[in-house]
Write a structure and sequence with these properties.
heterodimer, A: about 110 residues, mainly beta, seven-stranded mixed β-sheet, globular, B: about 110 residues, Immunoglobulin-like, 12 strands
């Protein structure tokens, strides 16, 4: 069974650019969540996708957007990058079944905005 | 709204000593509670979880946690700390409400001295 994978591992962008981060869910999982972890902080919930639809969102502006594909892989897109977007971005997959199910986290993508 | 408080930002213990990391949560119903560990530059690894049942939960690497509803606490313990336990520890509360949402605390960084 393959775990959650993310790419790239590290990324450097400049302010105003756009970035796409990718996540491959654990086999059999239909839900993916994205989190932002700033330095010295706990992860903050960005949004969640279930069967290709966004079904929950945290306190993040619309320039943070996402996609989930039929194979349940996912992308996080951030437009008009700001310096404060520098963080570790984590994705987590789970199987939504009406009950609470554990989320499995990937290793993260470290984004640096200069 | 759910929230998690980890009052200790940084803890130092001697190798072989016991450990207790504090966590207090706020949630209106029975919570789903988690402890995660994060080594430098790594993603999150689940140590243990509480969904229901026995309030003393055993996890990996010799960790345990006790759910105390009356105190809204879910403290993590280990009887004898190893140098490899040095990492950052996050307490988290999960909820079901249209989507699965996990709220993390700000973390406790554990330093282990010889």
């Amino acid at each position: 069974e393959t775990g959650v994978t993310q790419s790239p591992t590290h990324l450097i962008k400049t302010r105003g650019q756009q970035v796409t981060l990718r996540c491959s869910s654990q086999s059999g999982h239909n839900t993916v969540s994205w989190y932002q972890q700033a330095l010295g902080q706990g992860p903050q919930f960005i949004f969640q996708y279930y069967r290709e639809e966004e079904n929950g969102r945290g306190n993040f502006p619309p320039r943070f957007s996402g996609l989930q594909f039929p194979n349940y892989s996912s992308e996080l897109n951030v437009n008009a990058l700001e310096l404060d977007d520098s963080a570790l971005y984590l994705c987590a997959s789970s199987l939504a079944s009406g009950e609470y199910n554990e989320q499995f986290f990937g290793p993260g993508t470290r984004l640096t905005v200069l | 709204a759910q929230s998690v408080t980890q009052p200790d930002i940084h803890i130092t213990v001697s190798e072989g000593a016991s450990l207790e990391l504090r966590c207090n949560y706020s949630y209106g119903a029975t919570p789903y509670l988690f402890w995660y560990v994060q080594s430098p530059g790594q993603g999150l690894q689940l140590l243990l979880k509480y969904f229901s049942g026995d309030t003393l939960v055993q996890g990996i690497k010799g960790f345990e946690a006790e759910f105390k509803r009356s105190q809204s606490s879910f403290n993590l313990r280990k009887p004898s700390v190893h140098w490899s336990d040095a990492a950052e520890y996050f307490c988290a509360v999960g909820a079901l409400g249209g989507y699965q949402k996990v709220t993390f605390g700000t973390g406790t960084k554990l330093q282990v001295i010889p």
